[in-house]
Structure formats: C-alpha cells, structure tokens
From TrEMBL:
InterPro entries, sorted: Ala_racemase/Decarboxylase_C, De-COase2_C, De-COase2_CS, De-COase2_N, De-COase2_pyr-phos_BS, Orn/DAP/Arg_de-COase, Orn_de-COase, PLP-binding_barrel
Protein name, per record: ornithine decarboxylase
Family: Belongs to the Orn/Lys/Arg decarboxylase class-II family.
Keywords: Lyase, Pyridoxal phosphate
Cofactors: pyridoxal 5'-phosphate
CDD domains on file: PLPDE_III_ODC
C-alpha cells in the first residue's frame, strides 16, 4: 500500500547553497509552493566525527536511514569508511559516491544474484545471516570463498526501543549454536551481530543484548572475531530525549571487554539515525487551518511517514517575521493527499495564531524522513537547499555553546 521509494538511483536534484544564519526563515521569505528540504552538512559532519572519535570501535553508516549521495560524501569526508548496506542498489550507490568505501551486506535474507555481484564486482566480504539456508546461499554465490566475514544475527529484545526490530530477523536463544558452528567452519572471520531496535532510549538495551551474545558464544564454544552491536543509537525528539551517547558507548565497550572473545576481536556498530537525524529538516506551508488541525503540504507519503504511522513527534518552528508572540498550542497535521491516513497526530507545538499561508520548519527529518518520500497523489518534491544554521535540536552541540547560540531547544 505504501510505496517506499527512496532516493536510490535518483540523481539528486540541484541543491542550492544558502549560507545564512537562519535557513528556514530565508526559505519562508521566498514563499515556495512545495515543501523544501533543508540540509545541514555541518551537522552530519559533526555526528560522523563524534562517532569516529568516541565510539571505541568501527562505526559503519546504515545507508537505509538516508541514502542521499551528498550525505554519504559528507560522512566519508569525515572518517566514516564502512557502510552497512541492505540491498545491491545501496552497495552500488555507496561505491559510486566513495569507490574506496567498504560495504558490508547486513541484510540476513539476500538474493543470490545480489551476493554474487557484491562479492565479485564490489569487493564486499562481510555478509550477515540468520539461517543455514542463507549460509548455503552465500557460499554458493561466492563460489565457496575463503575470505568471508560472516556475521550471525541474533534476535534480541527491542523492549527499550521506540521501533521494534525483534521479530523479523535473528536466531533465537537455543537456535544459534548450530549456525555459529557452521558459519565458523565457512568463514575466515566469524562475527555476531544484533539490532536492539531503533531509537533505543537506554544503554541497558545494549547491555542486555550483549548478555545474549555471551550466552550464544558460550553455548557454541566458537572463536568470535567481530561483535557488531548494530544500530539503534538515539536522537533527540520531543518527549524522547535520550541520555548522552557517551553513556551508550561506555556501556557497550564495557560489555565488549568482558565477553569471552580474543584480544584481537573487533567491535563494530551500525548507526543510522544518530548519524543523520540532524542533517535535514523540511519547510512546509500551511494551506488551511481547521480548529487545531493544520493542512500542510507534506505528510505521510512524504517526509512524515514516521509522524503518521508511528506517531513520532518532531520539533516544529513557525517561520514568521516578526516572530509570533502568542503562546504555543498543540496542533495536529493533515498531509496533502486525499487519504485519511495522511494524518500526523503530533501534538506539534506552534504559536496559537498559526494560519494558512504560514511556513513551518519541521526538524530532525534527516533519518527516515527524506528516505521515505513518494510521489503519491502528485505530491512529491525534491528541492533541497543547503543551510548552515544549527538544527533545532542537537545531541552534538556542547551545552555551553548551545546557551549562547540561537538554537531553539524544545
Ligand atoms: C536499520 C538498521 C540499522 C540502523 O538503525 P538505526 O536505528 O537507524 O541506527 C543498522 N543495522 C541494521 C541491520 C538495520 O536494519
């Protein structure tokens, strides 16, 4: 029903550069008819450097969170050398932007042709799996290659995360022994990976998953070379302010150090959201107000899929000059299509006098926002403007700096 078409393969339309202090306000002055995506390269660069410097292991970017070629280039330029790809199109995309990048194929169920192309054409050596069938498929597709890193995906709890990834993939407790053993025989390096679910709100999620890893290693009695803690690193949204990322990193590192693995074992992570959430926001126009409902020109089939289908809240700012002095009020949004489901309950806080013709910036849409856009019902847009002001919320701006800048903190 929902056509998820991503930016994959679509040449990114002309980005204009707008070096201004307040990107959204500047756009509002131009009175665009269609929604406009604002991108903040400095915010993505800052997130990449944070992971590269502070996570005590390898950070690979999970491309599905936002497959923008511009973003991949920024991450590459700021030290992200490895990419978690889930489809052959993502592998091709990464290699076209950064030919030297290393792609790891971390989808546990892959077409055999995709594995073969990844291995023979793009030099991919790392594959994840959660079944004996997939192991056989990988060995067939790579003609029994002897240089593979095979990561067995364990099923772990998503109880601490806002978005579950616990049911589709992963071997459960008691089922991992046979697969770990078989993968050990086939692999040059054996890894164990998992995903605690997206937007994990506490480091405990990783501590608990690492206990599952420990049990699986002890049960199978195999030598493990890679521990991959997956994604799930949170960003900050209204009502979902997580503890500092450093606490997640500390918990993970401590758990890693205590596992029964060799000294040379590597620690990997696959952050998606945390690397790109602050990268973009969208400027929308209010076309109509009906009570506390605002009809805006982007929605469930555009960049607001998560707001519609997961009830996710995003920070919002009214882009009006002079600023409204009216007190904030909770609003819900309707998107532009004719579909009742094109509804975002929010609540989104905006000055109570917001009205048709006003422009609103919706923040933190860099992850799973732009990536989910469709052109359903004739409403699609890809005008992108690069700005250099701060995102509405940032996990990466030191507190002192935040106090003195004009960052709107919700
Ligand atoms: C989606 C996904 C990620 C990224 O998850 P975030 O919650 O965005 O960090 C990483 N690894 C795998 C296997 C995924 O499916």
């Amino acid at each position: 029903m929902h056509k998820h078409h991503s930016a994959l393969g679509l040449a990114k339309a002309h980005s204009t550069v707008l070096p201004v202090v307040r990107g959204g306000i500047d756009i509002a002055k131009r009175k665009p008819v269609d929604p406009v995506t604002l991108t903040r390269p400095h915010a993505a660069a800052r997130a990449a450097r944070f992971f590269v410097e502070k996570f005590q292991g390898r950070s690979m970017y999970a491309v599905k969170a936002n497959p923008s070629p511009d973003l991949i280039q920024i991450l590459w330029d700021n030290g992200i050398t490895h990419y978690d790809t889930a489809s052959i199109a993502e592998v091709r995309l990464v290699k076209s932007v950064a030919p030297e990048a290393t792609c790891c194929f971390m989808h546990p169920v892959k077409p055999e042709e995709a594995i073969a192309e990844a291995y023979f054409t793009h030099g991919v050596r790392t594959f994840s799996l959660d079944s004996m069938e997939e192991l056989a498929k990988i060995m067939r597709a790579t003609r029994n290659a002897s240089d593979l890193t095979l990561c067995v995906r364990l099923r772990v709890s998503s109880e601490h995360s806002k978005l579950s990834l616990a049911s589709k993939f992963g071997v459960g407790p008691g089922e991992s022994k046979e697969l770990l053993f078989a993968a050990r025989q086939a692999a040059d390096a054996l890894g164990i990976c998992f995903h605690v679910g997206s937007q994990a709100m506490t480091p405990e999620a990783y501590a608990a998953a690492m206990e599952r890893v420990r049990a699986a290693i002890v049960d199978a009695a195999v030598t493990v070379d890679v521990i991959d803690v997956g994604g799930g690193f949170p960003s900050s949204y209204p009502g979902m302010e997580p503890p500092p990322l450093e606490r997640f990193f500390e918990t993970i590192h401590r758990a890693f150090e205590s596992l029964p693995i060799s000294y040379s074992a590597e620690l990997w992570a696959e952050p998606g959201r945390a690397l790109c959430a602050e990268y973009s926001s969208v400027v929308v126009r209010v076309e109509r107000r009906r009570g506390n409902e605002l009809y805006i020109n982007d929605g469930a089939y555009g960049a607001l899929f998560d707001a519609a289908h997961l009830g996710w809240q995003f920070p919002t700012t009214l882009l009006r000059e002079p600023e409204s002095t009216v007190r904030d009020h909770p609003f819900s949004f309707y998107g532009p299509t004719c579909d009742d489901m094109d509804h975002m309950a929010g609540p989104f806080l905006l000055p109570a006098d917001v009205n048709a013709g006003d422009y609103i910036e919706i923040g933190m849409l860099g992850a799973y926002g732009a990536a989910m856009r469709t052109a359903f019902n004739g409403f699609g847009c890809d005008e992108t403007v690069i700005v250099d002001d701060e995102p509405m919320v940032s996990l990466y701006v030191p507190v002192e700096l935040e106090m003195t800048s004009n960052v709107v903190k919700l």
